[in-house]
UniProtKB/TrEMBL annotation:
PANTHER family (alphabetical): ABC TRANSPORTER SUBSTRATE-BINDING PROTEIN, ALIPHATIC SULFONATES-BINDING PROTEIN-RELATED
Residue ranges occupied by any SsuA/THI5-like domain in the UniProt entry: 43-252
SUPFAM superfamilies, alphabetized: Periplasmic binding protein-like II (SSF53850)
UniProt-recorded name of the protein: ABC transporter substrate-binding protein
Signal peptide region: 1-27
InterPro entries xrefs: SsuA/THI5
Gene3D superfamilies xref list: Periplasmic binding protein-like II
Keywords of the record: Signal
UniProt keyword Transit peptide, yes or no: no
Length: 328
């Protein structure tokens, strides 16, 4: 789940007061990974609905949706306003490939939306019961596989003792589960809530694993240099959306219901779950949470070495208080 625009030394309210004299609010579109499918993007929906981006100095009129990973990064780099929220793995991959990418804020920092499910009548009662069985993940080196391997490690289970089957997607994995092809399938909210009457939860990732940075806001270094005020405004607007979500979960659930076409009950449960886990960061960087993600990416073979965050992160576009609040 990002913000950008306004001077780092100003608060959001002061920035909103000063901005009209400096520049006119204009319409922009940005990209957010898994928009409409996961809860990463809820703060953007809230900020757009409540006019919080406009108050920060930018009018975000639409979100470009991507399946995640490289597709999202390419969409961002090709857009008029090259800012977007992507998975950490996608940002790191883009940097390794020599793309002009810089990380400017943190989006989400929880894995509470992820879980493992099985059929109600299954003999699988805990993660330990998956030993010797097959489990559906979305794809090799995916976040779903990474979190599963981290959960196995947390419980001291040799990953070689559980067969992982790439299903191609969460829904596909659940279909395999129903057909008896696997004993468990990875799941993610809100899909797991929509289908909760069909399955039984084996474990929730958030109950086993510590918070880690799961998505970040990126842009190009060229755009950051030429349009710093735009980035500060986006970051400030998104931050306001995060704070509004935490302050009024019920109101955010109504926006989620409309934006993502969910039932009131599903939207409320999804938002309440993520508010409880503090899924959305206001933007500051936490080294420990960033490094936990790197540890997970090493586990699936996505990366081999430690990450020098100083070469990838630019905190200059964060509000002043978030610069000092972070631990990077």
């Amino acid at each position: 789940m990002t913000n950008l625009f306004k001077r780092a030394c100003l608060t959001l309210g002061a920035a909103a007061m000063l901005l009209p004299a400096a520049r006119a609010v204009h319409a922009e579109e940005i990209s957010v990974t898994q928009w409409g499918n996961s809860l990463y993007g809820l703060p953007y929906a809230v900020a757009m609905d409540k006019g919080l981006f406009k108050k920060a100095g930018i009018d975000i009129t639409g979100i470009l949706s991507s399946g995640g990973g490289g597709t999202t990064v390419r969409n961002i780099l090709a857009s008029k306003t090259p800012y977007g929220e992507v998975a950490v793995s996608a940002a790191l991959a883009a940097a390794r490939q020599g793309m002009d990418v810089v990380i400017v804020n943190v989006g989400t920092r929880s894995v509470a939306e992820a879980s493992m499910v099985t059929m109600p009548n299954s003999d699988v009662k805990s993660i330990n019961d998956l030993v010797g069985k097959k489990v559906a993940i979305t794809s090799p080196k995916s976040v779903s596989e990474m979190l599963f391997l981290m959960a196995l490690r947390d419980k001291g289970i040799d990953q070689a003792k559980v067969t992982r089957v790439a299903s191609g997607g969460y829904v596909n994995g659940m279909t395999m589960l129903e057909q008896g092809a696997v004993a468990g399938a990875v799941a993610i909210e809100p899909l797991s809530i929509v289908r909760k009457d069909k399955y039984r939860v084996v474990y929730r990732a958030g109950d086993l694993l510590h918070p880690m940075t799961t998505s970040v806001g990126i842009t190009t270094r060229e755009f950051a240099k030429s349009h710093p005020e735009v980035l500060r405004a986006i970051i400030a607007g998104r931050r306001a959306g995060v704070e509004a979500t935490y302050a009024d979960p019920a109101g955010a659930a109504k926006i989620l219901e409309t934006s993502f076409k969910l039932t009131p009950a599903v939207a409320k449960e999804a938002v309440d779950n993520m508010v409880r886990s503090r899924m959305w960061s206001t933007g500051e960087f936490d080294r420990a949470e960033l490094d936990r993600m790197v540890d997970g990416l090493k586990l699936v073979g996505e990366i081999k070495d430690n990450v020098d965050w100083s070469k990838l992160v630019d905190k200059d576009f964060l509000p002043a208080d978030l610069k000092t609040k972070g631990t990077l």
